[in-house]
Specification:
InterPro entries: ScpB_csome_segregation (IPR005234), WH-like_DNA-bd_sf (IPR036388), WH_DNA-bd_sf (IPR036390). It comes from Paenibacillus cisolokensis. Keywords: Cell cycle, Cell division, Chromosome partition, Cytoplasm. The protein is of the alpha+beta class. It folds into 2 domains: 86 residues, Winged helix-like DNA-binding domain superfamily/Winged helix DNA-binding domain (Arc Repressor Mutant, subunit A); 73 residues, Winged helix-like DNA-binding domain superfamily/Winged helix DNA-binding domain (Arc Repressor Mutant, subunit A), CATH 1.10.10. It is 47% helix and 19% strand. The longest helix is centred in the N-terminal third of the chain and has 18 residues.
Length: 189
């Protein structure tokens, strides 16, 4: 539906389905923070009241169609959330080990651990020059490294090593999908 409205002293044509589609994308990008009507209005160059009404229409559309996401209003901001009735499926997904490819940061971290083990999180971060919490957590969740104890130094930081039950080389081969015996493993692994 295309309609006209007066905004900032001028008459404009509005394509409501297109605006709702744009709002859906904006809410997705905003993540947990969401966007309030004023922010949406500024981005879309609309009146805040119209922006809020478009979000409410989007919410009704998603509900009516039984989509997997919904619009929730939290602390004056709108955000996309999953439907509570689908929670058992999301929990299964969260607790199912995935075999996704490793990020560049995770590969770098795995290489450092393989070469310098045992090594602390701080030492990894000093070598990489950036925080490595996410990469380390990713590698731990994929059982490619593990916390093996505490360093014998001030602060007794956690030490990371490859799991004792697997070799780092075979883990690299598996995660990097080297299946051919003719291809060599990078020295960093």
């Amino acid at each position: 539906m295309i309609s006209s409205f007066i905004g900032e002293g001028k008459l404009r044509k509005v394509d409501y389905p297109k605006l709702k589609s744009i709002i859906e994308g904006l809410l997705f990008m905003a993540g947990d923070e969401g966007l309030n009507p004023k922010q949406l209005a500024d981005i879309l160059e609309l009146d805040a009241g119209l922006a809020a009404e478009l979000v409410r229409e989007l919410k009704e559309d998603l509900d009516r169609e039984g989509r997997g996401v919904q619009v929730a209003e939290v602390a004056g901001a709108f955000r996309l959330t999953t439907r509570p009735e689908h929670a058992p499926y999301f929990e299964r997904m969260a607790y199912t080990p995935t075999r996704s490819a490793l990020s560049q940061a995770a590969l770098e971290t795995l290489s450092i651990v393989a070469y310098r083990q045992p090594i602390t999180r701080v030492e990894i971060e000093e070598i990489r020059g950036v925080k490595s919490d996410r990469a380390i957590q990713s590698l731990i969740s994929k059982d490619l490294i593990e916390e093996t104890g505490r360093a014998e130094q001030i602060g007794r930081r956690s030490c990371m090593e490859r799991p004792r039950h697997s070799s780092t080389i075979s883990a690299c081969r598996d995660w990097m999908r080297f299946r051919s015996p003719n291809r060599s493993i990078p020295r960093s692994c």
